[in-house]
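User: Some background: our group keeps a shared notebook of sequences we're curious about, and every so often someone picks one and asks for a predicted structure to add to the entry. Today it's my turn. The entry only has the sequence so far, pasted here. Could you supply the structure so I can complete it?
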Amino acid sequence: MTTEVYLVRHGETMFNQLDKVQGWCDSPLTVKGINDLKRTAHALSQVHFDNMYSSDLKRAIDTVHLMKEANQVSEIGKIKKLPEFREVFFGSFEGDDVHNTWKQVALAAGIGPEDDVSKIINQVGIYEFREATKKADPRHLAENKEELDARMVRAVNVLNDLTKNEKRVLLVSHGDFIKTLGIKYWNQSDGLHDITFPDNGSVSRGVLHDNGKFEIIDYNINAENI
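Assistant: Of course. Here's the predicted structure to add to the notebook entry:
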């Protein structure tokens, strides 16, 4: 059975607001984040989902429950939490200022003190960017491309196994993870350069085919336009 996957990015958090690196560390949704999610939830309230899933981080869990509570046409039981869909892990940079972090990554990539992450990725490519992030991390704990790519493949396989009898599901994940899925699986990406970072509360639609192949067909869409 082909499964349609609505990938929703969680709402704005305190760390998003403060421009802090937020991977596996967590911070609460802001008032703005909750209000934005209510608009997303309202826009999806008449869309029938066979199930809803979430990353195991609290900001994603809080988001999926807002989607569940607002939906008027779906019977959703207990939400299954999928650690495979966590945000990218940034190691020692977790909780640090994003601009200072990207400057260190740019230096490790050999291109000078650049704090625009898109410029860094577009200059060196996503593979070297992830390698530079791990290299710049004093403890070298940050996920590199090989580790992240393996987790993305595992995430797709886990979701494929869970949704074999489900036609449409909603899954809440995270900005950089969704973007990296987009770089890998969206046909408008060349697999190397940066793409737009998904907005909080945005929807990216994917399709899981019978043969396990995954593709993203819509990326970073306002839910009202789905």
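Suggested note for the entry: The helical segments are 14-17, 31-43, 58-70, 98-108, 117-136, 145-162, 175-185. The radius of gyration is 17 Å.
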